[in-house]
Amino acid sequence: MSDLLSGPVEAAAGLSVYGAEAVDKSAPASTRDALVKAGVPGKLAGKDASLWGPDAEAEAKVRLGWVDTHRRSRELLVQLAELTSELADLDHVVLAGMGGSSLAPEVITRTLGRPLTVLDTTDPGQVRAALGDRLERTVVVVASKSGSTVETDSHRRAYWQAFLDAGMTEAEAGRHFVIVTDPGSPLETTAAEMGAFTVLADPNVGGRYSALTAFGLVPSALAGVEVAELLDQADALATSLGADQNNPALALGAALGAAATLARDKVALISDGTGIDGLGDWAEQLIAESTGKAGVGILPVVVESPQSPGATGADVLTVTYGGALAPGDVPGGGATPDVAVNGPLGAQFLAWEYATAVAGVVLGIDPFNQPNVTESKENTNKILASGLPAETPSFTEGAIEVYAPQGAPGDLAGVLRWLLDGLGDDGYLAVMAYLDRFADADAARLRSLLAQAGGRPVTFGWGPRFLHSTGQYHKGGPQVGSYLQVTGAVAEDLAVPGKPYTFGELQAAQAAGDRQALAGRERPLLRLHLTDRAAGVAQLLDAAGDLRA
After folding, report:
1. Closest Cα partner for 472 from 315, 367, 380, 360?
2. H/E element holding 65?
3. Which reactions is this enzyme annotated as catalysing (predicted)?
4. 63 in a structural domain
5. Residues in the chain with pLDDT < 70?
6. Domain boundary among 335, 363, 391
7. Is 262 left (phi over 0), alpha (psi -120 to 50) or beta?
8. Are 42 and 95 contained in the same domain?
9. Helices 214-222/100-112 angle, 10° precision
10. Residue 180 burial (CB < 10 Å; 0-12/13-18/19+)?
11. How far is CA 341 from the centre of its chain?
12. Which CATH number belongs to the domain containing residue 537 in this structure?
């Protein structure tokens, strides 16, 4: 019998965590016992900002609102009901947001079967497709905590111009926007100038912890989700957060932290098929951006299914997640995970946030800052101002231009094999695709093909979306990563209204800025540019599929 089934299950409010005790017991000393002895459960439930050390205390004081924001969020319910009624004729909801501002609503609406168009890209083809979809029936939720996110500002400008070009007056166009931002942000002022609806979020909650704030609830409610149920689920779990026992969020956090201290610092996140869709993508940005800094961290690896390559390994903690299990069902959905987490979505959000904060205590890092995120942004701004750097491909094969380090093989299969062979026993490969995640969706298959061929953890991220999640880990976490960046030719560009650049130029600058940030760390970096996207993706998949482990 596996440790998952033979060990105790820790449960509260319908959320169950299996296998955590066995992970904790694999350490020389119990991480769980040390956390309890230090009073961490009660301190965290009480929002004690001293838990992560004196250097983190100032940040933590203004970032611990997530512990009970679900209670304050009830104040939004009347406003959301009124807003939903007022905009009932606008039945196509578009969410323009990045990172934590978009990932939670996407999980909520996918899980509960409600339609939501998430626009978290600068790819001109993907933006153009969104602009051309039911424009007259569209309400755009522009979500940005700081109010200065370049992607989100560009989306707002593009939609504003599209509404005006469709013959709307400025007053009519303003009605098609709902702005979600922090009080006092530049976006709040812009919203007033536009005549847009404004919903202010909890300022004491960081973006990646904001699932149960206005950032998660506004687009979900407009899409038809009964968001009060999510708040009820979180509230039911909250009563267990200060407890030493029967605290599944503590069990999960202790397991994550214990595994990382035992060199199992990669976490495979796998849906078990029991009704929660996409939680891995949300947890990925939460864990990576919270823990990946100061040379340490936990690398989340979102795996497509329990049977997909990359779900296990000597340095991998395998974690499945899902909804409530029927009596007699075995957790894991066919996988043999180390830990399984099952329960309602609202409780899942709060539990993973709590567990990530606990893992931060174990690792000795500040889980609320993101010190390396601005690096790629600053590089992007410089490139937009000065122009893209001149680059010459190492060689061209079919529809793919290959930009490889000196000394790398001169053929596509060889250079991919070279990249995989350099991973070593503790490395990982990050595939970063600056493409259209719908039109070029097949590119995501690279993750499993390369994981199969390399036998090491492989992550996949759509750019620039991943810059707001795993991008922090790439720069601030353990420097054992290798990087495969995939870019694509732009067949038809799109202007960013009011700016001296196009979406295609912005996308290219973001890719180049991130390359500069990674190159400065002297880690293996390979860029593949698809001169024809469809042909290039097909060629790349064939090459990856022909590799042998």
Report:
1. 367
2. none
3. alpha-D-glucose 6-phosphate = beta-D-fructose 6-phosphate
4. no
5. 1-2, 549
6. 363
7. alpha
8. no
9. 40
10. buried
11. 19
12. 3.40.50.10490
Q: What is the pLDDT of residue 329?
A: 87
Q: What per-residue confidence (pLDDT) applies to 132?
A: 97
Give the amino acid at 464.
P
Same domain flag for 229 and 256 = no
- Residue 464, preceding bond cis, omega within 30 degrees? yes
Q: What per-residue string of b and e applies to 290-310 under the rule 16 or more CB within 10 Å gives b?
A: bbbbeebbbbbbbbbebebbb
Does residue 51 lie within any of the structural domains?
Answer: no
- Say which residues have a Cβ less than 8 Å from residue 338's Cβ, sequence separation at least 6: 3, 4, 19, 22, 23, 255, 259, 317, 318, 319
Reduce the DSSP state of residue 405 to 3 states and report it. Answer: coil
* Euclidean distance between CA atoms 298 and 42, whole angstroms: 24
- Report residue 267 as tokens: 């976490």
Query: β-strand 316-322 against 339-342: which pairing, if any?
Result: parallel
The DSSP code for 296 is B
Last residue of a domain, one of 301, 328, 363: 363
Q: How far is residue 9's CA from residue 27's CA, in Å, rounded to a whole number?
A: 19
Domain tally, the chain: 3
Q: In this predicted structure, what is the pLDDT of residue 504?
A: 98
Cβ within 8 Å of residue 268, ≥6 positions away? 301, 303, 310, 311, 312, 316, 317, 318, 319, 457
Same domain, 149 and 195: yes
Q: Which domain holds residue 380?
A: 373-546
Q: Which two tokens stand for residue 12?
A: 């509260």
